[in-house]
Write a structure and sequence with these properties.
three-stranded parallel β-sheet; binds adenosine-5'-diphosphate; two-stranded parallel sheet; globular; Rossmann fold; alpha/beta; 5 strands
């Protein structure tokens, strides 16, 4: 049984995240979307809101579970009984950042393994920060976020 953890901020979840999860389901039995609370990042949506949005998006995906976690990612991996996680790579800058993150995770737990999925050309431009900027300015985000959460994101009280 291959379970893979997909950690991130998901502030909010985009069609880029969904693309990654769908592709991971081709080689894993279960994807655990782990919505993290990173004290260094001020998010537009609370941890509970970000997790609720992910739950709405994956409501019809029996092989996808969603959880939120406020502590160390390593602790969550241990609790979930898997040493495997995945991250996406949109460009070289992200690859450099991810490589540094991996070295930190490896120093904390040398059994942790990370799989990197490159963004597809159709989804590489999708990011939560762009969604926030467009939605806040009243722009159309229907090609950026799943239909299930479109209204919630659109009507979010940005401040
Ligand atoms: P974090 O703050 O941990 O980077 P994000 O929610 O921004 O959280 O991203 C979580 C993961 O999803 C990261 O590995 C990121 O590269 C990946 N990701 C986000 N958008 C895309 C996309 N459009 N294509 C591929 N991967 C993506």
């Amino acid at each position: 049984m291959k379970r893979i953890v997909f950690p991130g901020s998901f502030d909010p979840i985009t069609l880029g995240h969904v693309n990654l999860v769908s592709r991971a389901l081709r080689f894993s039995d279960e994807v655990v979307v782990a919505v993290l609370d990173n004290p260094e990042k001020r998010t537009a949506f609370t941890l509970a809101e970000r997790a609720a949005l992910c739950e709405q998006v994956f409501a019809d995906f029996p092989a996808v579970s969603v959880l939120s976690h406020a502590g160390l990612l390593m602790t969550l991996m241990e609790e979930e009984g898997t040493r495997l996680m995945m991250r996406g790579l949109r460009d070289g800058e992200e690859a450099a950042h991810e490589l540094r993150l991996f070295q930190i995770y490896h120093a904390l737990d040398s059994d942790i393994e990370t799989l990197y999925l490159p963004a597809t050309p159709e989804t590489a431009h999708l990011s939560s920060s762009a969604v926030r900027a467009i939605a806040q300015a009243g722009g159309d985000i229907s090609a950026w976020v799943p239909a299930a959460i479109l209204e919630t994101v659109r009507s979010h009280p940005w401040h």
